[in-house]
Amino acid sequence: MLFKTRKKTKFISKVFNFLWPRKGWRRIIKYGSLRLKRLPGSPHNIALGFTFGVVAALTPLFGLHFFIGITLAWMFRVSIVASLLGNFVGNPWTFPFICIVNYKIGEFFFSTGDKININMSLVSNELYLLWNSFYKLCIEFNYMEALNYFNELKLMPSMMMGSFFSIILVGFPCYFISRFLITNYRNKIKLFKQRQKV
What we know:
Layout: H1 11-19, H2 25-37, H3 43-57, H4 65-75, H5 80-87, H6 95-107, H7 120-138, H8 143-151, H9 156-197
C-alpha cells in the first residue's frame, strides 16, 4: 500500500511515542505554533479559538476537554481547529501540575479541612462520582441521589473553584499573546511577499 511504513510499530512504542515523542517536544511545539499561525481566519478568531482550547484543558473535567473546547468555539463562531490545538496544552505531562495548582488555589476558597493526598485513583474516583451525580440529576431527575453523590466529592469542588481562577490568570494572556504572534507572523509574510514582487 502507498505511504505505508515497512515496519509495523508496536502498541507499546506507540504509547511511548505519545508520552515522549521520538522527534522531541521542541519540534512538536514548533510544528503546532506554525500550524496555528497558518490557519485560515482572522487573528482574533484563531487566538480566541486557541484560548478556548487552553481554557478547556485547565478544567478538571477530564475526558470532556475536547468537547468543551469545540462547544465554546462553535458558540462564539471562532476557529474549532485552533481550539483543538489549544487542547493539547492539557497532556499527560501537564495534567498532574494543572490538578495540583487548581486544588491549591481552590483550597483558599473551598476547604474541607481534611488533608488530601492527590493521586490518580482519587481523581478517577472523583470523576466517577461527578458523572454519577450528573447522570442522576440530568437523566433520571433524581435530585436526592445526585446530591448524595455530590456530597461525597472531596477533591473536585476545590479543583473546580481553583480552575476558575487559573482560567482567568492563563486565558487573558494566552489570547493576547497568541493574537500578537499570529498578527506578527502574517505581517512578516506580507512584507516578504511585497519584497519578492519588487
